[in-house]
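FAQ: What does the model actually see?

It sees only this:
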Amino acid sequence: TGTPIEAVQAAVDEVLTTPKEAPTAQFQTGVTDDAGIVDEYEEVDLTAIEQLPLLAEGSESTVYRDGSEVIKVAEPYNAAESAAPRIAEILRADQMIGNGDLQFRGYYRGKNGVINPVFAQPFIEGRGATDAEIEEHMLSRGFTREGNNYVKTVDGVQYVAHDLDSDNVKVSNGKISVIDASIYTKNVPVTPQAPVSPAEGVGQVAPQ
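And it is asked to produce this:
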């Protein structure tokens, strides 16, 4: 018969608590390692979440519907490096090209003990965006198109947005929403500038 959805959602509300000290569930910029994640955020019990309606399974995350929200459970990493840079990268991508409403809700530990993030964002029901609509949106965010990607350079760092298509960019009530933003970075080499000679007569003292 299954578990009544009200009971499931109540259980999810119980495990998806806010961070221990932060008033909201946004990731704190000062959290740079796993110790900081454990200090500031709650460990999430996935048992209740896994009873929610399943929306999608991908290589990056498994997505569940929780009323007006979706819960994204990141696929477990096997690498031992801290999850903090990965979390910050995902949230940065949402700020740059998404709606800025993706929240880091907490973490769970994989079988090998590695910390993995759990995110939440509003559920958006709409049609897939066309290529032209995606391009217009990205240009409005200061990106330029390069093949199938969009790039933007800030302070010597190139941000490359990729995998933008009708599956992860939706249109609802005329508004475009990137529901699964993905950006990687590349350092842009700085070209040394040749010294510039002062123009004729500039900075020179006229003979007396």
